[in-house]
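Please check these two lines:
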Amino acid sequence: MSKKKPASEPGFAKLLDAWIPPEGSGVPVGCLATSFTFSPAFFEEECLARFLQLESDPDEDGPVYLVEREEKMSQLMAAAALVDQHHCRGSRSLRWDLLSARIRPGILHSKVSFLFWTNRIRIIIASANLTEDGYRRNQEVFGVLDFHQDSDSPISFLQETIAFLEQAVLLADSSEAPTAPRLRWSSLLDRAKAEGGSWGASDDEMNQSAVRVFPVFVVPGRATLFKQMQDLWPAASPPVAAHVVSPFFDVSTNGNQPALAMWGLVRQRGEASVHFHVTAEEISESNSLLLHAPESLKDATPSGRSSAQTVFHRLTLPPERPLHAKAIWLENDRYDAYLIGSSNFTSAGTGLKKSASNIEANVLYLADSHRDEKIRGLLSHSFPRSEPLQLDNGTQWLARLDESEAESELALLPSAFQCATYSADDPSDPLVHLTFQTPLPNNWDILYEDRDEIFLDSRMWAELGSPMDCENLWHEDRAPSGFRVRFDGVSGTAWWPVNVVSGSDLPPIQELRNLPLEILIEILSSARPLHRVLAGYLQRKKGGPDHEPVSVVDPHKKVDTAQFLLQRTRRISWALNALKERLQRPAATVQALQWRLCGPVGVQAFADALLRESHSVAESAFVISELALELSRVVPEHSPGCVPPKEHLQEIQNMIVNLMNMIPQNTEQLPSNLRDYVATVFAKVVK
């Protein structure tokens, strides 16, 4: 089989484009991702931005970007990244969860992205970490499977991936009483199982296809990658050749275990070959090469079999694209099995190292060329191009250090530091809740994320009585995204990520706090997206080029205030009608509905502004009653996959009760007819 690509370069794509929802995908519900190395800023500003289809840019649009991000992220069931503990750190928005996977020995090395819209689930399994290098610089490989009504992706693949993610989150939280981030993670997967249970093809249908697709997860206690590939191989006749691409290999001189296992997959008699496609560089002042691989790969060739050969190929990659892709290809005259994903060709990456196996995720494409003679060529387009090498005595070997063995700049957080969460049931007294378990280090300090100032230390904790569940008042304006932890026996600091108990605990960003009634009316009455309306308001507020001067009224001239009141009442009436229409639309998540009700541009904010800007107790009582009456007329539209109308109405009913409690208590000063009207309205609408 030729590994050279045609000149048109099919098989190439931008990994970030896979985060963009195809047409008809519906509204974002939530997303989960796993990664070894990680960049919070990249995940938030590049990946989530595409998943949510943000229009604004964090660098160019400033506050407008924050407004749009706040609005769209607040409506997700869950957004979370599960990252290996060696790289789980960084400041971020607490609108999404950062979970630290604590696995010892071994690492969380899988790169799975689970994207869920109301009409589609997309699974991305890749070699690329969630970093700028992974998505934009390295030579990587990835596979995408979409699940929706009439999808031809296998349902079993979706089910197995969900099961993998359900187990993976336990690496961050295995407590009997799961934390809020774990509950959000699990709830999203539960909904995916419930709504996506029929999205895809059955195993019987897939058996008739020219290409079948399987997940291959490497998890401690399970079969090795090689055993799983052997079990999935469909024929009694084994592969005649195997091809391997990997940037990292075992460096042991006592026999290369993955290479020996690979020879166990190909046929044991007759011609057979194992090909390693590696990077190499010329040795200065010499005609020989330095291969970025161990010589033990060559030494694994079965002795006494002249028909068995190990062949090396030099990958011809652009110099600006370091190799990070991992792939294994098996073939005979009929079948091809092409595995891609996170597993390096190492004992830890393939599950051979039982004492310290990594957690890996791969996807295997099994093609039958008897069903489709073109399928082999189509699949091979994504296999990196290379040229065969002739080895000589001058060839040198140097395997690159496995990324799992590279030293981390981050100290590992002891398991005694369990969970850190932020809550604000009382917005004036937010809390940071820290959960510990014994034994703790003798001396430790918990530092603020952005300065060398102690938030809590072992001495202060002892004075509190050494509580395993420790609540601490938070006095900063911004909620913490994490703490730095120092303790005896290590240099540097570990990172303790903080997550929120509920999205409602987070205060709105400054630009959305206490918006004036006029801008709320403009937002509710406008067909334009929130961030676009706010962009104009913020521009006018700072007196920019689009600033509209306010007309000055001559105090010596008579002014018809009745006309002002009429216009104001008319605009409030328009806003109430628009608010009702907005609330009737289907909500993909309960969080989306609560944003419409309790968010900074929702019903509660509108009611607060009405009270704030009312000219009298009578006006306050009247407008709040009118608002409650309008809410009672909401008839939710039913849409599959959205909040059921009954639950939708219950959330609205809860808001109506809140509005009733906002009516000024001193109603004795109201005219009797208005007092009777208010009482009649709430007797009618409160159920």
The chain has a mean pLDDT of 89. The longest helix spans residues 561-584. The radius of gyration is 30 Å. The CA atoms of residues 151 and 200 lie 5 Å apart.
